[in-house]
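Support case: iron/sulfur cluster complex. Customer-provided input:
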Amino acid sequence: MREIDISTVTEAVQRLCLEANYVAAPDVRKAFELAAEREVSPLGKQVLTQLLENMRVAEVERVPMCQDTGTVVIFADIGQDLHFSGGLFSDAVNEGVRRAYTGGYLRSSIVDRPVGKRTNTRDNTPAVLHLHLVDGDQLTMTMLAKGGGAENMSQMRMLTPGDGLDGVLNFVVETVERAGPNACPPVIVGVGIGGTFDSVGTLAKQALTREIGSEHDDPQIQEIEGELIQRINNLGIGPHGFGGRITALAVHVEIAPTHIASLPVAVNLQCGPAARLRRVTI
Ligand code: SF4
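Agent response - structure generated as follows:
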């Protein structure tokens, strides 16, 4: 059994939050460079070029890429042979978020209750945590900062098997179309298909944690992703909704077994201009 002090988790989360907000990940930057080359609309091209400049300035000046510094979501894969000492895992994660958002001058975007007074917690806590037990004695944390604009335009629907693949594809494309400029395109589209009402949203979010443009290992899913990105980019929404070919940088689909009577689908949108994702293994 390996033991790590909980302060290691706090320090790692603090670093993840700061880096994710200040520095665009290499796959995001590369996707924007390719998109700027491919975009045919002059205004769309200009928007993409300005967003690349925004990433450059944020990195050099160590300021956030966007004023909405997001809800912190962490997928933690915890090895079964790992033991945390010195406190609770969730407290350590939230302490890391607190230190990053207060010390790093990142906007606090979380309110303590969804209706009523909605008081700001003033340190961007609590984070949303998804815990998974895995083999081994290591901890891998994948952190996303999810902006309100893209999160608000995400959707889930309980389709039935009769709706079939066409029903799924239409729902995904309609969701991106309805989002229009509000999700700050170009977006990354995370799609979850299968599971249950509660798990399909998490699956869609997990789909966003794949490297942009990475190929799914299942050929059928590859085909679905290919068709979806084509249909989405044919919508003509374009960068920031100013029109153009590049509405999505990538579509990532993940599937899970489901009930014989069910076909749950969830679409979680991530804004490209502030696609903040970091991963660490301890
Ligand atoms: S959706 Fe993303 S890019 Fe748009 S304001 Fe929110 S965090 Fe920023």
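The first strand starts at residue 2 and ends at 5.

Case will auto-close in a few days if no follow-up is received.
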